[in-house]
Amino acid sequence: MKRTTPIESIRNVAASLLMLSANLSFAQSASHPLRIIHPLSLEQVRVSDQFWSPKLKVWDSKTVYDVFDKLEGKYEPDRKDLIDEKAKLGRTRNAFLNFDWVAQGKKNTGEHDGPPWYDGLVYETIRGAADLLVEYPDPKLEQKIDGYIDRIAAAQAADPDGYLNTYTTLVKPTQRWGTNGGDDKWQHDIYNAGMLIEAAVHYYKATGKTKLLDVATKFSNYIYQQIGPAPKANVIPGHGGPEEAILKLYWLFRDEPALKAKMSVPVDENHYYTMARFWIENRGNYGEKDGSHARKSDESYNQDHMSVFTQKTIEGHAVRATLLATGVAATALENKDDRYVETANNYWDNMIGKRMFITGGEGAIADGERFGANHFLPESAYLESCAAIGSAFFSQRMNQLEADGKYIDELERVLYNNLLSSVSLDGSHYFYENPLVATDHKRWAWHSCPCCPPMLLKMVSAMPGFIYAYDNDAVYVNLFIGSDATINQKGNAIRIRQMTQYPWKGESIIEVDPASSKAFTVNVRIPGWAHSVENPFGLYHSKVSEPIVLKVNGKAIPVNPKNGYAAIHRTWKKGDRIELSLPMQPRVITPNDSIQTINGKVALASGPIIYGFEGVDNAALSEYMLSANTPLKLTYKPDLLNGVNVITGEAMDKSAKAVSFTAVPFYTFGNRGVYPYRVWLPKQ
Ligand SMILES: [Zn+2]
User: Does any domain span residue 301?
Assistant: First the structure.
């Protein structure tokens, strides 16, 4: 497969030796100590939170149905291209018709509804809905999904190989996987396959049903048979994501071997793990020296400009890049391979240290939906919702790999800012782009490329599993979300209950209830912003003056965060109680001097929430200048924007007159009509 130099061969031997010791819970990478921790399964956590529960209710009862309906074409277009398309076609595009056409045996008709990745968006929505079903059982939704699965399975049944990508079958049937002059960057064969696999794994876990899993397994076997080292086809996914997806299929069958008997095809789960590694390690390999096993480079756009192990920066299409990086980190959890760990760290450090926007946005450039150069962070940047959410999935995997709270800081930054902004408060309109300044930015009902709503659903439905983590010796409190969880640690059931009004108030109460008294560590995340570390690489700066207070059973203890956590080691017994108070005082954020695009500007935040100024509250917004020392006041407004804290203070207008301002959370922009807004203000 991969061309190897002698040095690489030595490295591979070293990596194999490292894998021999892979069962140790502590492995040591050259410069990144591994400490693998585990998120909880969704069954282990119930969310009961003043901030998130009402939102989850909206997404569960409204958004999931909204996205499925719109994928079915049941919507009134509100964007010109889709209005024109409807006028021309006499109808809106329906993603499910594609499956029906393929099931009817249609092929090479040239007719396909929606973009080539429409299959994938259906699968992603099923995955998100599946995870929501765990928290909120809904027989009506399950029945709806079962109906979709029947149509998907029927489409697969029409192909003797079990191949399933409706676009390629209907439009380019001789170019499977983008071969024979095709292009998987456009066709999304493998991306769609990955999303199918993930949907199948999640739907099985939520419902115990195996119909979609059987479809995914059959297809995965065909993929493994067709793609890989010579003489198989040299193919990488044209869009990142399938790497982690097929790894999940490997994990599922490895952990539940009895499940294999329920499949209609033989299962060797090692093939799926091999596939994940091939897709990662084959980046930058365009064939053998003798010209065999050749393929065209997808270049940096698809992270294919060189081996991932030599990529030091995160480049190209930001959603592709963040999802590939998530796959690299996820695979590192399995193989603990130094090269994977280094690559994941290189990607993350570059992304968070040099290319991240203050809202957690990623991907500065509209052309190619790309990451920009280091420190190129313009206010009018592109910042696709999917890119920020992809980076959040990546940060979660990094936390799992290294048990460092800094990764959750960045997951949290996305959750409370660039993720939430992507959906309207009523859960039916969406942003694709999330720039930090705009004059008439408006959420749409549906888009010709509606990738962002399914991505939102995938993350918010998975989020309950990220609130806590554990290993053999410790429990990690990662997110401050009211919840009730049970962690099974070496046979001891530990119940953790959290009560909080975060992010509007800084106090959280965490009750620790082990079934039997036992010594272990509870690691409570101490966010960087709470002790004046706005960004771990100094990309942004801020200062808070109020202290962090941590108590156990009413008694204050030192905080001393290490690797992002305050570690509380003691013999825990029923009824023990941790109280954490984080300083939610409004703070002024300044950019690193190297960020030319926002030099001399300031932004406001409180806790994890980034604030901004919207025209509806601030008539003279375009003239505002802000002093870094201006007194700021935080006030809870229960009737504004479903209940938010606002920051008020005084800015200067262009005649140097003091004017009162009101700043609201970035994520709420555009919910009271369409007004100009901005996050950064010139410093006075
Ligand atoms: Zn998107």
Answer: no
Centroid of ligand 1 to alpha carbon of 258 (angstroms): 37
CA of 433 relative to ligand 1 center, distance in Å: 8
Distance 383 CA to ligand 1 centre (A): 9
CA of 280 to the centre of ligand 1 (A): 22
Q: How far is the CA of 80 from the centre of ligand 1 (A)?
A: 19
Q: Is residue 38 part of a domain?
A: no
C-alpha of residue 638 to centroid of ligand 1, in Å:
31
Instruction: Report the separation in Å between the CA atom of 418 and the middle of ligand 1, taken as the mean of its atom positions.
Output: 12
One domain for residues 566 and 621: no
CA proximity to 38, closest of 394, 467, 519: 467
In DSSP notation, 34-94 reads EE--EEPPGGGEEE--TTHHHHHHHIIIIIHHHHHHHHTT-S---SHHHHHHHHHHSS---
pLDDT digit string (tens) for 429-486? 999 999 999 999 999 999 999 999 999 999 999 999 999 999 999 999 999 999 999 9
Region at 89 (left for phi over 0; alpha for psi -120 to 50; beta for the rest): alpha
Establish if 633 belongs to a structural domain.
yes
Q: Residue 246 Cα, ligand 1 centroid: separation in angstroms?
A: 21
Name the domain boundary from 526, 549, 581: 581
Which whole-number Å values give the CA distances from 359 to 404, 437, 467, 538, in the listed order? 21, 12, 20, 15
Tell me the residue range of the domain where 574 lies.
469-581
Check whether residue 533 and residue 616 sit in a common domain: no
Instruction: Tally the domains of the chain.
Output: 2
On whether residue 498 sits in a domain, the answer given is: yes
> In this model, does residue 404 exceed pLDDT 70?
yes
Q: pLDDT digit string (tens) for 609-622?
A: 999 999 999 999 99
CA distance 619 to 185: 45
Q: Are residues 536 and 598 in the same domain?
A: no
CA of 468 to the centre of ligand 1 (A): 27
